[in-house]
Fold this protein.
Amino acid sequence: MSIVDSWSPAGSGPPRHVHENENETFVILTGTCRFWLDGSEFTAGAGESVFIPRGREHAFKIAGNEPCRHLVILSPGGFEGFFADMAAGQCRIPEDMHTIEDSARRHGMVFTGPPLD
């Protein structure tokens, strides 16, 4: 299991993607996050959690004008290497998508579509 304490700026979020190996749980600590899971959209705010089973297409975007702090819990562990790659390369979406996609492949994640509007 890995637990990542994440701070995401307003309006940010990754493209749609699938984790081939890990279940993913978001625990929203501050702010609001909009989720897309297999074609359905919903929001979660502080104090709420969202579970995304492995193999399910999903995306999220930070809603409103405030950043969002959330815990990302991945089980089993190993995916934290992707986050380490992103931090080491100071990667940004969309500018660094080639580097991001290379790391994603190495860590069992596949991008499947655009980010949320």
